[in-house]
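cron nightly-structures :: item 1 of 1
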Amino acid sequence: MTRTLRYTFLAAVFVLGAVCSAEVLLYDTFADGSRTETSLPTQSAVWFSHPANLTVSSGSLAVNQLAIGNTSSKMWTYFAPNGSPVSLGVGDKLIAEIRFTPRGAMYSTTSKNFRLGLFYDPTDAQLLQDTNSDNGGGRWYDSRGYAVMFTLSPDSTAGTIQVGKRTNVTGTDGLLSSTGTYTWNTGSGQAANLSLNTQYTMKLVLERTAEAEMKVTFTFLQGSTVIASNTLTDNGLGSLPIYTSFDQLFFRLSTYTGTADIVDYNSIKIEKIPAAYGGPLVGVEHVFTAVQSCRTELFDGVNPRMNDNRTDGSKLSVRSDEKAAKSWIKFDLSSLEPEESSSLRAAILKITSITDKTGTTQLSYVKDSCLDNIGWTETTLTWNNAPGNIPSNDGQTPADPSFTVTDLRANLDPAKAAFLAVVDYSSGCVVGDSFTFDAMPAIQEDSDGIVQFVLHGATGLINFATHDHATVAYRPTLTILLPPLGADWPIPYQDQTVQTSLAFLQWTNPEPNLPSGTITCDVYLGTEPNRLLMDKVTLGPDVNIAAVNAANFPHFAPLQNRQRYYWIVDVHDSSREGVLEGLIWSFYVNDNMAPTVNAGPDQITWGLPKVIALDGTASDDGLPVPPGAYTVQWTQVSGPTVSINPDNAEDASVEITAPGVYEFRLTANDGEKQTYDTVKVVVGETSCQASHLSTGQPYMVGDFNQDCIVDLEDFAQLLSKNWQNCTDLLVGCN
């Protein structure tokens, strides 16, 4: 067995469309009737300005506003450690979901007396005590965050929902006490009329949609039905940058006459949704070469071969005629640690042809539960003892009559093996052609480190390379990709093309080895994949974003056009020894944007011949070579062949003489990048024909002349079709 370990990018093999998973920061259902727990994410301490009027029971945290009287009450909870707020990168979301039930009485009012928000105080420690002070004894004056305010009313007096950004952070206003401390959205949201003893859900979503833009959305639901919503977009409101750090959820209820007698909170949930990762998978690659492989054979045309070992150290044969060759490949992954196997990110099997052939072959794997002859070697394997195979007593029929002869020759026992993929070389393959397959189902099922694959059911004889083939590059391999121990999910992703305006490097930090640990990072950036030649910046605890500026990277910022950059994030975990060295990631800078192109609107017309104008438009950013010369080209995609005149200008025309559906493509090319758009043109001899060509709908039953009207003309055509025809074949109709 050959095993290599290296840090790599694998962009050519491991491709990922989008990956993201929610990180639950807090999900408290008050199941144990407590508000003093701090074991996030299932429990969080909840502090209250009037603790005597707060009732906590299993599944309920009830604020008695009626008992508090004509004054405001406040309630707050934290979802991140003191001094380590949750940070949102581009594309990240922070979602607060609160479920509550109004009880007692509800009051008619237009005053927006229910207020809540997500905040972070950058200068003061978290306030961990009950207090009847909105400012917390000086705290929260400079808290940054976003809030929503609305009315709990049972009737049409309900005021509309408003969403705002706290923009006065230098005064002495309470966190949610002064509406003047906020910049509110200019458009009013919907109003929400509520009912008593009904559970509602409030959802506040912060989404960082760009480097300098935060979208704040509030939604009010009854069950799964949205009954009110509103949105704020912050791209620098109040001459302040957007807020990206949060650790606190804050509530304020302004007197019982503005809300309800009792507001009963049933659950509080905070979760972070990281940006969908659109790049190739990165990680630590383990390459395993097969440890055993062998072909088996059922019959040689004269004699049965089901108990013969057929290895010759050169080929893995597959066929499904009377000889019925099948081949087994075995890998030993036992050197992987259990935690590695459970967290694998990708698994790719590669096999290589050693003959020139055309056709297909089936690829399956032996189920982990099948332990039959698991210790086979290339010199002991036979048809009848091969794991997952269907045995035979005579080399011609299956020993188990529940299987057919076709099963025997081409298939495996479905109780012991599972289909994985088709090896498709129907367009032809030659010696040295490799085929790769996603082997994750087989690896995820494995519990003992032994993984076995079977090639069977070929449409004709084909040979693949063995584990000990003379050409090492031809041998079967299994490539396992594991997530790195340190920084992960780079943005920009590996080999991404970006512009010189790229503002941030972003990644995902690992969890500390111990809950008490803190994560700090050394971030390197340079034009060579060598730490010694890079600039380095050291970041504070739990930061996963680094600005691309001269302060952090004096020799390499601002970024230069048409330059490749390399970057590394080394992680330091205070609860473990050593450094978690990062992978070497790279991106390419190119300010050239692809041209934009529009082939014009689809057209439906009738009457032949018909001259059709193709009205296209295109534009470009002037790159890569000023003054921005680009070319356009019209081509026909489908329909009866016509001539496009001219075919190299945005505006062109075609003369159509036959009815049909035509499609034309306009391509714009700036010499480096190209973009295209298509336009569909439907032409009929009549409007009726054009309509049916456009929709694809059949003509009405009885519309024999296909004029889209069933009338006497169709009836006459029906009668005249067989007018006076004789159907008496015996004597005629004379």
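cron nightly-structures :: done
The chain has five domains: 23-131+142-273, 283-482, 488-589, 596-695, 709-734.
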